[in-house]
Structure formats: structure tokens, C-alpha cells
Amino acid sequence: MSGKLQEALSGSRGADQKRIAETGVEWIETILSKNADYGSSVFEVPELAPECNADAAIRVRMSDKINRIRSLLKRPPEVSGESLTDSMRDLGAYCLLWLARPSDSAQWISETEVDLDVRAEDLRQVPANDDDEPITEEWAKTILTHPFKGGWCWKRDSVACIWRRPDGNLVLGDGHWLRGITTRGELRMLVELLSDKTSRSESLLTRS
Question: Residue 50 in contact with residue 110, Cβ under 8 Å?
Fold first, then answer.
């Protein structure tokens, strides 16, 4: 037993720390007693959930206790037997057991476990249809693929050239402002229309 814990239990570190130490010791003794009764099953792969390792299984139990606490804070329990204090104590016990889990449990990977190493930007909501989304510079690069005068353009050196200026405005050909084109869907339609017209023109020139 550490010197600080002994001092706290003796009361020499104040009433608050004495109460914290006594509660903690009692709590640890209860956890050890339950571990003796149940064995170390909490650190083993669950029989009915072999896809979970010990790390995940303990976190599932913690989630259950959090939901139980949330429910008890909203309304009295319909089934007696587990008070708010009991649930708080159990949640703390699972936190401690998670910290005390075998060092190799976090490395255990089942055949069905998926890679959860994703970036935050990968989790952002992506609209099913982005036709109504604004034309940002990053998105414009996917349509207007040629860098031009600080902006981006499509069909450079053509009367059908679409140029997105550095200020975000769109220009067609030799100076026709496209102020009515403000969304991605509208720009896509314009590019498709011009693509069709230019391909027809090139076909006619080839034939002649």
C-alpha cells in the first residue's frame, strides 16, 4: 500500500481524501471478490460473441451501464435491484478492468473485425446527389481540369472554354459571364451540352 493511500486512510490528508480512500478500498475489495467468484471471464472472448476481443467486450458492458445510468436519471426503475449507485459502481469497475486487461487483448483481431482506422473527413455526410451543392474551387478542379490564370478552365483555347476565375466567377469563351451557373448540377449540364456541340462540330470538320 502506497504511503499516500495510508495517509489518506488515516485521515492525515483531510476528510475528503479519507472518504475517497475508504470508498476506493471498499470498491477494489468488491471487484476482487467478484473476480474470484466469476473467474477472469471478463478478459476472455465471449462465448456468444466470438467476434469480440476482451477489449471490445468490456466496452460493450460499459456501454450497457451508461445506458442504464441514463435511464435511471430520467425515471425510477421498473425493475428494482440495481440502484443508480450500483450502476455507477459497476461502470467504474469495468473502467478499471479495461485498464487492467491483458496487454495482448488490444492486439487480438478476429477474422470478422474490420479496419476502423479512418480519418474524420471520411465520416462526413456525403449527399446522395450533389447537384444543388455550390461550386467550390476543389470541386471545380474535377470538371475544369486545366490551371489557367490563377483559376481553372475546360476546353482551353476554344470558344467553348469555361474558365472559373480566382474570384469564383465563371466565364464562357471570350468574355461571356455565367452568373446564372451557381451549382454543380448546372455546371455539369453546361459542360455536357458544350461537349456534345463541340464533338458534333469536330465531326463535321472531319467529314469536310
Answer: yes
Measured distance between the N- and C-terminal CA atoms of the chain, rounded to whole angstroms: 98
Phi, psi angles (nearest 5°) of residue 133: -75, 150
Which tens digits make up the pLDDT trace of 20-75? 999 999 999 999 998 888 888 888 888 888 878 888 889 999 999 999 999 988 88
Select from 110, 88, 99 the least CA-distant residue to 23.
88
Express each pLDDT in 162-181 by its tens digit.
Answer: 888 888 889 888 778 888 89
User: Cα separation of 162 and 108, whole Å?
Assistant: 54
Using CB atoms within 10 Å of the CB of residue 16, give its burial: 0 to 12 exposed, 13 to 18 middle, 19+ buried: exposed
Grid cell for residue 23: 470508498
Give the whole-angstrom CA distance, residue 194 versus residue 155.
10
**Which pTM does this prediction carry?**
0.47
Helix extents (H) in the chain: 3-10, 15-38, 54-74, 84-99, 137-143, 184-207
